[in-house]
Amino acid sequence: MDKGLALRDVTITKGGVPLLSVSHAIAPGEVLTVMGPSGVGKSTLLAFITGTLAGDFLATGEVWLDGQNITHAAPHQRRVGILFQDDLLFPHLSVGANLAFGLQPGGSAEARKAKVDEALEEVGLSGFAARDPATLSGGQKARVALMRMLLSEPCGLLLDEPFSRLDAELRAQVREMVFDRARARALPVLMVTHDAEDAQAAGGVIVTLGD
Amino acid sequence: MKHLAILAALLAPVPALADIDPSNWDAVTAEAQGQTVFWNAWGGSTTTNDFIAWVGERVMEEYGVTLEHVKLTDTADAVTRVLSEKQAGEDDDGAIDMIWINGANFASMKEADLLFGPYAEQLPNWALVDVEGKTVQTDFTVPTEGYESPWAMAQVVFVHDTADMPERLGSMQALLEWTQANPGRFSYPQPPDFLGTTFLKQVLVDILPDPSVLAVPATDENYADITAPLWAYMDELTPNLWREGKAYPPTGTAMFPLIADGELDLSISFSPGAASTAIANNELPPSVRTFVLDKGTIGNASFVAVPYNSGSKAGAMVVANFLMSPEAQARAQDPAILGYGTVLNMDALSDDDRALFDALELGVATLTPAELGTVQDEPHPSWATRIADDWVTRYGVSQ
Amino acid sequence: MNRRRFLPVLPILTLLAMLGPVAAGLWGTVLPAFGHLPAAGLAGPSLDPFRDLFNWPGLPRAVMLSLSTGVLATGISLAIVVLVTAGWSGTRPFRALERLLSPLLSVPHAAAAFGLAFLIAPSGWLSRLVSPGLTGWARPPDILIVQDSWGLTMTAGLIIKEVPFLLLITLAALGQADAQRSTTIAQALGYGRVTGWLKTVFPRVYAQIRPPVYVVLAYSMSVVDVAVILGPNTPPPLSVQIVKWMSDPDLAMRLEAAAGALLQLGLVVGALLLWRIGEVVVASLGRRWIAKGSRGRFDAVVAQTALVAGGFSAVIVLLGLVVLTIWSFAGFWGFPDAFPDGWTLRNWMRFGPGTLEALGETALIAGTVALVALILTIGCLEAEYRYGLSFSQRAVWLLYLPLLIPQTAFLPGLQTLMLNMGADVGRLPVMLAHLVFVLPYVFLSLADPFRAWDTRMGTIAAALRASPDGVLWRVRLPMLLRPILTALAVGLAVSVGQYLPTLLIGGGRVATLTTEAVALASGGDRRAIAVYGLMQTGAALVPFALALLLPALVWRNRRGLRHG
After folding, report:
1. C interface test, pick of B71, B82, B159 with most C CB neighbours within 10 Å
2. C425 touches chain B (CB under 8 A)
3. Torsion of CA B237, B240, B245, B246, to 10 degrees
4. N or C: less crowded end of chain A, CB within 10 Å?
5. Three-state DSSP class for A18?
6. B15 exposed, middle or buried (CB, 10 Å; 0-12, 13-18, 19+)?
7. Residues of C in contact with A134 (CB under 8 A)
8. Residue C118 CB-density burial (10 A; 0-12 exposed, 13-18 middle, 19+ buried)
9. ipTM for the complex?
């Protein structure tokens, strides 16, 4: 299988102690949910995939994305998008500039601005381009963060407890939006969470770590 | 490594140029053009600093020489600097081109061959200098031999605030008695400060029946006997000094604010005109006057010398010559500027130049040359060194 | 490509810039201390320099002064800071004190010392304000206050400068010590505020502020400029005497100076060891005190006293700056008038041009050095982030090393060594010497905020396909603008305040505001001193104001960066 995100015999150890082992392929548009209590190494797995694993961890195995082995690629060349539980919008940039940051270089200034505006409109935030991200509500921030990630045209999406900071009502709404967009773009999604409801909503395969 | 080699080659000293001949004045001024002279001079007095800045402007106008005043806290710093350069083999372009110097510093530099010269007596303005009447060819009894040129005369005067202390004192004995009646109102700069050491010498010169014993170098044999009366005197004086002798003003100028505040009634100065200048600058109250002792007081000349490794010897000589010019000398003597005594012989001057001096208001606190009386010779520099060291041991480390 | 190779080298380069001159300087001190000065025709080894040193009659007192002023200044400032923090942290008075003290951190030591002297001398402003009304003094009393034989005024001068430093350091440590919750729990258990804080928070905070405390001790024991202005002179503290010996025309004195420098080093090391032993003793006594369970009966009194002492130390510095300002505009000002007879711009007109020239030199040196230090620091921290090239816990002490070794111990040796190498005196060597002292402060100031930056921001930016350099320039540095500018301002202030390195390594050719001001001290012209002191303060203070103002301006529409 070419398309999609595949983890081949990934094992992560810390100080010689095995932390987790995963071997799984995620097809485009599918969601793999990794569950487990906190401290079990869920986020470590994501760090391995994004190429930002801390030095005290040791990982074996391979990560393949759309038919390419990205295990040893530089983080910014992997084309793996990620969303954290915090929106992590760059506080020094306006909402529009945050989105433009995700946008690949090239194109005229107007064209880029149009893409940003389009993205904002898609999530119901038209006219927010000049706003200070700190003045946005939690749901609005989550939407901007999502669109920023999508504008960078990733080939896979990682979700690190993405909805745990949102209150119940928003949570379902944002969750749905994220999964919809991922499916629409045929992205393989790997989500780690300790929330059963999130796992349920993802509707994909669930792997539980730490048992 | 290759880069280092190139760097080293670039940094290597240029071959030494033959030293310029001071008697060929045209060549000197020609070479001086465009040179920068680093004049290391004590920087604690703002009036002196202003004067040096003025000299810098004038030599730039006249000769195209750039004068940089390196402000020292202690002239010995400059001596050390030249010494270290010699050790390091920096023989061609040292950091110092000219030093305001006299006494022990001159003696030690001359002895260690650290000075350029002789040059002083070849300078054009030397012809105007009062060689007969002023001690310009000996520096603390050490012959200058042309290795330094004079630019100011100094003589010890006592500075008193007549508002608090109307009477003048005729002798060191009278001063001692006055401090006993007025404890805490007199002090002198802390030896080895130049002026502080001078005060000690002044005491010795005044209380010795025959001060001529100080003209020969101090030795282990003669030192203790001759200075015994000095230490007896100081033992009596010290408890009645300002702060009971537990602290001293660091320099002569530092005593002016103390007089202005009324902390001191009496202090000493090595510049007969300095008190008038300070009055003009609001630094001393107008009631301040000066006096000298009945037997006279110690006097000497201030000199400038050029280190052997100066890279701007011509420029330095141009500055040294300018310092001896009637224009600079008259300005230095103006109490509103510096109030330093001139080294020039009035009879050697043209009428116009003499008029510059005649026009000066010497100032309310400045004594006339006649009132300044007899100038007593400085003791041989070996005395100053020993006395200062001895003072430090006796009073400088044990309070 | 070049860059990638360059970055990992930076930590080594930084350590070299910091420790190279120290090591070289110490070597240059050790040789003459044992009689080896070939340039002067003296060959060692010999113990004569030490024999001469120990024969100097002033030595016992000079050594005592060095020890007593250092230990007292450190102990008292630490006590004030700890007790104020214990009693008041999180309260309104504490924030007020913090706001009052923070800008004072950058007031150069020399300026603060001048202010103190102009304030508390018998003819000082305080005495003028209450005379002759309260005191009946028509003339200043003949009391030894400034330059007192015990060095108490000098100690006070050090305390007023070290309190702001230690307070800010303590504040930084508090954040990581979980202080608030510990105090709350202690208070819930019936402990007084101060006692509860001391028993629960202090041990953790002290473990963090220990290196800076050592720096304060080493600095206070070997300071030169403050000692010249406020310290006794019959004899002076050892460090001042070393500088005097260094500048003696008699070469043999250089050997004695080198021996003195090694003794000074030994004294500082000894004092640090003693302090360490003191820590162990205090810790063991503290454990007993904790075990006894006493709740703290005198907490209120202790807290009040500490607050008053802290406030007092801030007010003294401020009043000192006020009296400097008055003197700088004063016409004739006789005792006991509370204010000058007249006000005039003459002093500024007279000394202004000179100060501007010195300001130019100061700014050039400080600007270059602070910038280089900042670049090296960011390079080190970024290398640590990218390649995990971090200083180990032990190596962190290397950062403090240049600050722990007394300046008087290695700068004279460095001067001799540079001369021997044929390196000319002047601006560049002065800059390199400044870098030794500026680097650690810039690093310490920036390291925490730099490391505290949420690295997930980096992950996100990389996921958005920004290269490592892009992440640094487009995300991390802009977000850290405020701490970066603060670190730069710290570097500038440290460089502006340097006296001994400028004097010794500059060979007198490099005249900064600080060297000019201290040189004027011996002349006693209070108007000139005031003008130079104020300019010096301004040179250190303005960058701090800009460091606060600039980010507020640039990020005025970015709420997320306003408190970060």
Report:
1. B71
2. yes
3. 150
4. C
5. strand
6. exposed
7. 558-560
8. buried
9. 0.92
State which fold the C1-34+351-514 domain adopts: MetI-like fold (1.10.3720)
Look-up: residue for tokens 């009043």? Answer: C319
What CA–CA distance (Å, rounded) separates C275 from C213?
10
Separation of first and last alpha carbons in chain C: 33
Q: Do B46 and C350 touch (CB under 8 A)?
A: yes
Domains and CATH numbers, chain B: 20-150+303-362 (3.40.190.10), 157-299+374-396 (3.40.190.10)
Domain C54-321 grouped into CATH 1.10.3720.10: yes
The answer to whether the CB atoms of A52 and C468 lie below 8 A apart is no
Q: Do A152 and C463 touch (CB under 8 A)?
A: yes
Look up residue C541 and give its DSSP letter: H
**Residues in chain A, how many?**
211
Output the DSSP codes for B220-274.
HHHHHHHHHHHHHHHHHHGGGSGGGGSS--SSSTTHHHHHHTTS-SEEEES-TTH
Residue A102 has its nearest CB partner, among C454, C457, C464, at C464
**Tens-place pLDDT, residues B31-72:** 999 999 999 998 877 888 899 999 999 999 999 999 999 888
Cβ-contact C208, C179 below 8 angstroms? no
| Residue pointed to by tokens 């012959």 | B143
CB-CB contact of A35 with A22 (8 Å)? no
CATH for A5-208? 3.40.50.300
Whether C1-34+351-514 and C54-321 share one fold: the answer is yes
C196 contacts C187 by C-beta, under 8 angstroms: yes
How many whole angstroms separate alpha carbon B259 and alpha carbon B108? 35
Give all chains having 3 or more CB-to-CB distances under 8 Å with chain A: C
Question: Hey, which chains touch C, using 3+ CB pairs under 8 Å?
Answer: A, B
- pLDDT band (50, 70, 90) for residue C261: very high
> How far is Cα B150 from Cα B153, in angstroms, rounded to an integer?
8
Give C501's pLDDT tier (boundaries 50, 70, 90).
very high
Q: What sign does the CA torsion over A174, A179, A185, A188 have?
A: positive
Smallest Cα distance from B57 to chain C, Å: 14
Where are the domains positioned within chain C? 1-34+351-514, 54-321
The DSSP symbol for C392 reads P
Work out the number of other CB atoms within 10 angstroms of the CB of residue B371. 12
Q: Which phi and psi angles does C334 have, rounded to 5°?
A: -90, 160
List Cβ neighbours of C452 (8 Å cut-off, separation of 6 or more). none
| Angle, helices B194-207/B172-181, rounded to nearest 10 degrees | 110
Interface test with A, best of C4, C451, C456 (most A CBs within 10 A): C456
Q: Which of B242, B247, B260 is nearest to B160 (CA)?
A: B260
Q: Pairing state of beta strands A5-14 and A17-26?
A: antiparallel
Q: Identify the residue with better confidence: C365 or C168.
A: C365
For C233-254, write each residue's pLDDT tens digit.
Answer: 889 999 999 988 887 766 678 8
- Which pLDDT band, with edges at 50, 70 and 90, does A78 fall under? very high
